[in-house]
Each structure stands twice: as C-alpha cells, then as structure tokens.
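Service request form, structural biology core

Requester: graduate student, group of Dr. S.
Request type: structure prediction, single chain
Budget code: on file
Notes: please return the result as structure tokens.

Sequence provided:
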Amino acid sequence: MSNTKKVPVGYVKPSRTDIARSVATSTAVETGQPSARIEASLEEVRKKFAHLRLA
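Core staff response, request fulfilled:
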C-alpha cells in the first residue's frame, strides 16, 4: 500500500486568445471554413466594440 497523498491541482484561467482560438477552431470544424478566417473575424468584431462595456 502506498501512502501518497493526492495533491490538489490548481485551476488556470484560459486567456482571451485561448478562448478565441477554441471558438474559431470549433466553428471551423462545423462550418468547413478556415479557422484563421474565423479567428480574424472574431478579433475584428472585438476591436470594433472594444469601447463598449457590459452592464
């Protein structure tokens, strides 16, 4: 029997870039479009509305 204790693993918050890449890749798989194009359009929309804040 082993006396090793389980060490809790910390949570690392994904960056905005990681989330955008995941969304773009998932959408690209579903739609058949290149992920680079989708990622660029997401970034364009983000920059377009960067001055707005959610209430």
